[in-house]
Automatic annotation (TrEMBL):
Belongs to the SCO1/2 family. This is SCO family protein. One of its GO terms (molecular function) is metal ion binding. PROSITE patterns: PROKAR_LIPOPROTEIN, THIOREDOXIN_2. Coiled coil: none annotated. InterPro entries: SCO1/SenC (IPR003782), Thioredoxin-like_sf (IPR036249), Thioredoxin_domain (IPR013766). It comes from Formosa sediminum. Residues 65-230 form the Thioredoxin domain.
Amino acid sequence: MKLLLEIKRYSPLVILIAVLTTSCKNEANPINISPTEESSRVAFLPYYQDESFTPNWITPGTEEEQNFHKIPDFKLINQLGDTITQDTFENKIYITDFFFTICPGICPKLAESMLKVQDEFKTDSDVVLLSHSVMPSTDSVPVLQAYAKSHGVISNKWHLATGKKEEIYTLGREHYFIENDLGAPKSADDFLHTENFLLIDKNKHIRGIYNGLNRASVAQLITDIKALKAEYLDL
């Protein structure tokens, strides 16, 4: 079976990745779906480990999966003034992005997309959201509180994070690969700005990248979250 996987990048271009052909039923194979069925397009979502976002087809629960790239621990502060770490997201699927509260351009639209995801999984304790401020010097806890109130953010469902700029930028560029930029290396002096959303599984692996400005991509994110939840039921 051949399957075309379309991944949205932080780029002017839409990059098409991978036509997959497989017949081994014990591997992470594409699944059979009807044309009208809303579903993820593969049996297991791919795994990602670098800024190229080349999909790695790994069977969950294997040693290879356990040793694959993971988001490291962090220590940030959310809009409630609470410290959040990877322990906050223990046994959670989370969707993450990077924003700043006074952004006049893409950030309001990204917030609308995140709100759609929040509303879809409002009563689902397995799914949470994490938005990192790329201007932590100005996005203090009170500023994030006001932003949360004006954008319909549900506390402890959608975390707006501030903290040390170096830690946030290192997380974004070196671990989430959020900018998806294969150009020259950047430092904290170079502003971090992207429309990408990432899907992170319960084991802290990156399982998808989506364009938060694109309705179809956000719809696919919602579908893939459901597929990821189903994946855990099968393990």
